[in-house]
Amino acid sequence: MMGAISLNIAITIMLLLWAVFFERISRLVLPEDIVCENYKYVRLTKILIFIAAGTYFLTQCVFMLFLPDSVIYGIGVVVLLAMAIIVMLCFVVISKGSKWQYAAIVCFLVSTVGIVYWANNMITMSGEIYVDEQKVEIKGSYTLDIPLSTISMVKLEDRLPNIAYRDNGISFKDINIGYFKLGNSGRCFMYLKNKLFPIIHIEREKDMPVYVNCDTPNETIELYNKLDSILIENK
């Protein structure tokens, strides 16, 4: 939990700095006379960024104990998206009628597409799990390499572990990705689609357990059989 709080505090500070220095940033992006003529829009954008920073801090650091993880994460994504779009819209509006207008519009479109693409990747589980003779490799929003020599046990389970709270991860759209605190023990790493069973439970020597599954139950079973076979051969 402390890792997630520290990250969210850092993001809040970045938003506040963006608001404080937005006028100077505007003067770097656009000619000073254009910024001066449209200062009311610059000031309004600064206020909206301050509001975004406050909303982000309250939802991610204060209300995180009272709201579901999916709601907290969704609000965070919406706030960051809204702030970025507001900033780019400000540049488009204040550059209207000047030679900088088309450049601002292009930046707005490119930024919007990039932000939407980033948000979609963050709230979907686009990951892959590889097993070879040396390690288990998880690639995606969160990555993890597990040397086979550190695995003490692997088994299939038909229910989710008892999750106390999200430590540094994503809980959204029926997925759990990243680091979580278990109710009856320490931390664990998950890369799970919560409604697809069975799941693979990997116990490691001197490290946190790992829970993963694949896009279909058959793929999960095939992955388990492959991993179990390699572990037996390596004994």
Q: Which descriptors would you attach to this protein?
A:
single chain, 235 residues, alpha+beta, six-stranded mixed beta sheet, three-stranded antiparallel beta sheet, 23% strand, elongated
Number of helices: 7
Large-scale geometry: elongated
Mean pLDDT, to the nearest integer, reads 80
Strands, count = 9
Largest sheet: 6 strands, mixed
Q: Kindly provide the radius of gyration, computed on alpha-carbon positions and rounded to a whole number of angstroms.
A: 23 Å
* Strand percentage: 15-25%
Order the strands across the largest sheet as they lie in space: 4-8-9-7-6-5
Helix content bin:
40-55%
Alpha-carbon distance between the two ends: 37 Å
Please mark out the parts with pLDDT under 50 across 5 or more consecutive residues, or reply none.
Answer: none
**In terms of structural class, how would the helical and strand content be classed?**
alpha+beta
- In sequence order, what are the helices and strands, one letter per element? HHHHHHEEEEEEEEEH
Structure description:
The chain has 235 residues and is an alpha+beta fold. The chain contains 7 helices and 9 strands, in the order H-H-H-H-H-H-E-E-E-E-E-E-E-E-E-H. The strands form 2 sheets. The protein has a 6-stranded mixed sheet. Strands 1-2-3 form a 3-stranded antiparallel sheet, with helices on one face. The protein is elongated, with a radius of gyration of 23 Å. The two termini are 37 Å apart. The model has no long low-confidence stretch (mean pLDDT 80).
